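Researcher: I'd like a structural prediction for the single chain below. Treat it as a standalone chain; there are no partners to consider.
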Amino acid sequence: MVSTKVSPRTSARSAGPPYARVKQHLRDELARGRWAAGELMPSEAELVAQFGVSRMTVNRALRELQADGMVTRVQGAGTYAAPLHKVSSTLTIHDLHDEIESRGHHHRAEVHLCRAEQAAAALAGQLGLAPGAEVFHTLIVHHEDGLPLQCEDRYVNPACAPGYLGVDFTQTTPTHYLFQVTELWRAQYSIEAARPTAQEAQLLGIGADEPCLVIVRRTFSRNEPITLARLVQPGSRYTLQGEFSP
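Model: Treating it as a single chain, here is the predicted structure.
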């Protein structure tokens, strides 16, 4: 295989809108981990000189990266690699504790399971592990003002969060802890209306036929899967909300 390295200035003069080429170059470098979350990135002036384009072109590229959740821009200070839990402009992973507290309500967590297990083949494949490898498993029910709101069944790749099982999840959520110790880069998720399993119905205090909102979410660092979680919320107690702006 022959590999040809093209400098940013040469690339900027090839086909395609100049702003798009600047944006793609910065996106690629972020994906490679060139700048850590919160690290200052090159200034507009530096990018203008590097790519041989106008300041307006660079500004558009940075504005679009900000809209995509890839960077944070601070007037007078510069452009920073965004916190990595902001996966994209269409998905932000929220900490349920913060969500409940923002409504002025009280969050409480009951930990029903917190242990290491051997991963079955299907689960191992989802987490990029060998069948039978160790995986961390937690089962937690989150309450809002005393009412069960969510059953969180989560598997974690030990290589990404080796201290996971030592955390007191009655005091912090797995989401909050994983934000702190991992560099979340992207997520895959599915959302469906479904009946709970018998165990989920019992933990949530609902009937076996009550419709639930079920979210299955897999998250990744730049290099490997971090976690696989099944989040089950009774439909009568939970609404998934969002906002879109063109």
